[in-house]
Sequence to fold (467 residues):
Amino acid sequence: MVPDWPVVLYSRENSSGTYAYFKEHVLKKADFVAEAQSLPGTAAVMYAVSHDRYGIGYGGVSRGHGVRLVPLVSKTGMDVLPSARSASSGEYPLARPLLVYRTTERGGEVDAFVRWLGERPARALALEAGFFPLEEGT
Amino acid sequence: MTALARPVRGKPRPSLLGSTATPRWERIVERLIAAVAFVSVAAVLSILAFVAREAAPLFWEGREHLPDLILPRQWAGYDAPAHVWQPVGFPPKHDVVPLLIGTLKITGLAMLVAGPIALLSAVYIAELAPRRVREVVKPAIELFAGIPSVVLGFFSLVFIAHFLERLFGLTYRLNALVAALGLALTIIPVVFTVSEDALRAVPKSLREASAALGARRWQTTLLVVVPAALPGIAAAFVLGFGRAIGETMIVLMASGIAPVVDASPVSSARTVTATIAAELGETARGGEHWRVLFALGVLLFLITWALDRMGASAVARLRRRLHGPEAES
Fold:
């Protein structure tokens, strides 16, 4: 039985994009409580949570080793864990794409790089790094 | 002896080569050395000027936000008026009071821990220790001053935090006390060195007079030497405080950096220095957040400058008291 003990919140520094994303999409623009601790990176959050029985934090799933992932309730009312399928189908409510912006005209090395991103080796690398790769043909 | 050591500036003097005027190259070199000495003065002043220039527009741009920097406000979604530091928010909230509380809490705790340890070590080393012990202990304590603060931060983050958690079962693993203990390690050598110098500067005649009157060693130490050195010891504490209040890395790593408003030593805290270090990198240049961070920098500068002046004047007072007014140099 878990005793009555305050939950310790591990957050990110307010200079981080993850912090801003979480504040906007999860807290719906409300503030974190003052007691939420600011850590310098997702790895630090995971370290803290894994060493604190009552700790909870957030971060990219690619770093989520050594901690217990908490399922979120999807729009359809199901408990979902982050996975390649639930992320790309939009069922997992906290998935966000990594975007590649380009300013140059089509053609040249940039084009080749963007094409490469959709190919099998790049997708294997993304998976290896803990990200969920693009669907084939996107 | 003194006449030989004193530089004869600009005065004609006999030379081996027969010329009596100061050679031109000597004057040039003297000017150059003076210029170099003024570079550091100019650097300090221009740092203050540039930092203040970034902060100053706070007072005319968006002046209606000024009270929010120090006064509690009833923000939407909060139960009561509160001091809130949430510079990335909707809207951003820049109340610096939580940061000042965090700074004072950690610095005060660190002084409470480091002060007695450093002072007692100084009394021991200056008054009681045999020479062989002094020759080992003194450099060992002073070696602490050379440890990079990032190393002490890591030590606090991993070992001190773990130890305190085991000992007390704290809610927050990273808290003000963990940071304060790490910080204490950096200020012990400062307080120790200056206090020890002050104690040793007490003339031997005072000790001899005390002994001649039949005082025991502890009576001489406690009732004669320590009171005589008190201004220097006060200076040591002031300098230690100044060192602690400006320390960034240890508090950044070990305090949990949460802008909490409470007096508990074991809740997390967020200091002024850690806030500047963590936030400045991603702050829009010239925005309100940017200006507030620079204003905090000016505040820190003024606090450490005032502390340094206080320490220096205490040392001067000690010197006058022990050696008479003519000893001022």
Q: What stands out?
A: Chain A has a mean pLDDT of 84. Chain A has two domains: 8-88, 97-133. Chain A touches chain B through 25 residues (CB under 8 Å). The first helix of chain A runs from residue 17 to 25.
